[in-house]
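Shipment paperwork, digital attachment
Item: protein structure file
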Amino acid sequence: MREVILPTARTDTISDELVLTVVDEPSALPSVGADRLIWCPASAATGTCSWNLLAAISSAADADSICEHLFTVVVDDAAMFFVPEASLLTANLMLAAARGGRTLGEVIAWVRGGQLAPAAALLESVGEAGAVEDLEAFAASSPGEQAAIWAVVRQVMLPLGAPATLRALGGRPMQGFTLAEPPHVVLFAYSVPHLVEAITIVVDPRSPLAGVANAFRAWLVVTAARSYRPVRVLRSTVGGR
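Attachment content:
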């Protein structure tokens, strides 16, 4: 079913449309050929491409946009109360890593240990004063509030620390298995306008990884739009559900 068509205002620079298909598990994959890339954060063996998430962040606005999608997986009423603060905290941690040349794995470690100091130092070193102030305000809040916010951040971020997911998001060559054709591709903003392959995103919408899949899909749509490339998003499920 057609879900999104992104029209463009110009026709002189339009390339063929970029087709994204979202499926809920590998068994729902359409036939896979050389004209399809597969992004699957839950299974390294299924994926043939990765998205360098931190490379997609060059500003606080980029980090905020990605985290807005990440936290769509939070549905518990009590946890949702803290989503705005948790999303902001996570955005600042990711901004620190992106601007400071660190990895997503390091962000996961900061989250697991409840560490602000490494991110604050990096943000200060690159002149992100607003983000530093955000972290200082968080550190000045009550211990109970901090604990509740960290709990929500961990709910969303710790699932991203699984090896297959880190490989799908870290921009590193996948290791430990034989890659399907086509060869593994790392997606950056500059590569999207030139892609000739369709892209399939494999993720269960009920899984903790649904938020990062939403972020990836939104990034693809926006990135293609900036180069005046039309995008079509399709959805395919097992048994046609």
